[in-house]
Amino acid sequence: MENLEKKQKKKSVFSRLLKYAAPYAGNLALALFLVLTITALDLYRPVILGNVVDIFSESGDFNAVKGYALRYLVTIVLIFGFNFAQTWILALTGQKIIYNVRQQVFEHVQSLSLRFFDITPVGRIVTRVTNDVEALNEMFTQVLINLIKNSVKIIGLAVVMLILDWKLALLGFALVPVIAVLTYFFRSVSRTTYKIVRTKLTALNTYLSEHLSGMKVIQIFAKEKAKNAEFKERAEDLYHASFREMMVFAIFRPAMYILSIIALVTILSAGGVDVLNGTITVGTLYIFYNYINQFFEPIQSLAEQFGTLQQSMASAEKIFTLLDDDTKIRESLNPVGIDKVKGRIEFKHVWFAYNNEDWILKDVSFVIEPGSSAAFVGATGAGKSSILNLIGRYYDIQKGSITIDGVDIKDLKIADLRHAIGQVQQDVFLFTGDIKNNIRLKNENITDEEIVKAAKTVNADGFISRLEHAYDEYVTERGSTFSAGERQLISFARTLAYDPAILVLDEATANIDTETESLIQDALARLMKGRTTIMVAHRLSTIQHADKIMVMHDGRLVEEGNHKELIAKENGYYKKLYEIQLENQG
Question: Please, what is the angle between helix 62-111 and helix 2-21, to 10°?
């Protein structure tokens, strides 16, 4: 039963792979025709040479050889031309297929909810998009066509040899059972070793991704030697796994070569006797000599190609597992369009959990009016940041509803919803490139003039203009050459350039140096003007001006009101938080 399920799964994976090749069926058919033609010409070459050998051994007529020489030359030229055309067609087609697969995988990854990225190591995703997709390249460019080519060649060689001399042919085939056993063993072992290599490679990529991102922490705590030892251990695991894989090939290939030599010696011995007895000609023996040489090569290639096919199937299975991942935010079949978002936000009895029923938010209800500002405060883990993520629908709630301007966000187009929301986070992410494109983010509708205007509005133009290349200044990965305050100002400019109706600030003023803080506060005031603004902040002094302050405790909304109203409450949660912060500052 288990074997049947595995076979069905493999069949399903293979059929899904063929769908990617379907648009290029014409190219693949032409490549197959060329491969079969090349195979036929390869079978014809020894016949020409065998005839030449017979002519020299019988008559020595050089003039008769000229015609065969011309045939041989034409055959070689045709083989070269067809090989070039077939290789070019397959390479081009294979790269197009791989391009489409890689694009689909990356687009799918982008469509997944943040929950997927919470629980999946980045290195594993990188391995799927790069190494595993590339593993399919050889399957489409070589394996599938060559499987057919080698199968046809083996059958063709067997048929021709049987026609020429069935006794010699059967002598040559005597080792086929041994070859079959050896090939089966090779396929089984190579599949196992390859899976181990892929697992070790994924583990190494995952380790690299995590520790390169956390290099600052490693250096702060002087853990370079310890981490180097860990990396060495994983690298050695991959080395040993790869070595075992190579050893399988190192044993199989010489074994096949030895078997081919044994078959060749057998044919030459028996055939030599037949030549002396006059049963066959020298030319026929020469043809057999060539065919036996050729006979074992496609068998060896078939075994290796089956191994490569198994490897590609293993990679494809991992890719399809990723593509089948269902942790995505699904858009309504008939999404509602909103021409202009006013910014009224309402939570109605919202329950939310990242895992099963481990509730982060419990029956939360509130309303934020258009153009007003609302702040969420509370202890760590109270559910503040989760509320911000739910408004942008980066996660879906389990119970209740969230509406914007009276429309459930599940009924809105995801792109329209997120376009209406500008989110500024504590940890600003800048992409490699320049400042201008980090503000524009590939939106060509935002002009250079609008970028400069947005930067000036949020006080970012001051430091940008002082840079050597101004808005064309090169930005390294994550913007590491800029201070936290400068990255935050660029983030404000980015948000303003997109002109959102709703502004979400998740600890946007945290970890800012004193010199930049006044610029940040002024920029925030300009950014918030005329927009519905939602804030999360641990420093209560930064949110006292909010129209409404909502206090979260253990996933529930326990208090709401403005600063004065909440301070006036005896034994209130907000009042206690405020007093604790005052004491700490004192």
Answer: 100
